[in-house]
Amino acid sequence: MPDYALLAVFVPTFFFVSITPGMCMTLAMTLGMSIGVRKTLWMMLGELVGVALVAIAAVLGVASIMLNYPQIFDLLKWVGGAYLMYIGINMWRAKGKMAVIDSTQVSTRRVSLISQGFITAIANPKGWAFMISLLPPFINVDKPVGPQLAVLLSIIMLTESLSMLAYASGGKSLRLFLSRGDNIRWMNRIAGSLMMLVGVWLALD
Question: Which parts of the chain sit beneath pLDDT 50?
Fold first, then answer.
């Protein structure tokens, strides 16, 4: 079980990053409006499986390095912290435009929807970099990795599910909200600020 203080940092950070409009969230909203929330659930299933695989690979890969080469742990923390700060700065500088997805090119077959969600999750290099940078520091290699990974993965799955469901069911109202003024930009700035704070915390902890 991860430390409660670590979870208190991890939960809000991942929530704001997850809820910020991105490819998966925009895809969920577009499909929810065009083919309905029920069919969009199949895409969400594929996306969740992809995110889970990326998270597990990131934690196990970096954790194995930490176990075999503990002397480079401090370096990993600094690199991870610096990268999170880099992501946070980029989110602050983002123009706040939503990705445009052509729903007419989307197949409504279950296998196709699952595949689209899965590929979107695992083919996103930023997703890999984020998981590799953020997750391992929340794992204590002196304790069993499995239970800790299970808790973090449960939080990730729940957050991603609620975020995609909100986008898919929000439909036109959510699109209208995000298109007004600087709403997307402010969401990016909140998430970016949290990312930068966590980056500093990871580097100095």
Answer: 99-100, 102-104
Among the listed residues 128, 146, 15, 138, the one whose alpha carbon sits nearest the alpha carbon of residue 77: 138
Amino acid sitting at position 5: A
pLDDT, one tens digit per residue, over 111-166 is 888 988 898 888 776 677 777 777 777 777 677 778 888 888 899 999 999 989 98
| C-alpha to C-alpha distance for 87 and 85, rounded to whole angstroms | 5
The token pair at 35 is: 């083919």
Compute how many other C-beta atoms are within 10 angstroms of the C-beta atom of residue 123.
11
Q: Alpha-carbon distance 161 to 121, whole Å?
A: 13
Classify residue 36 as left (phi > 0), alpha (psi -120 to 50) or beta: left
Query: DSSP for 118-138?
Result: HHHHHT-HHHHHHHHHHSGGG
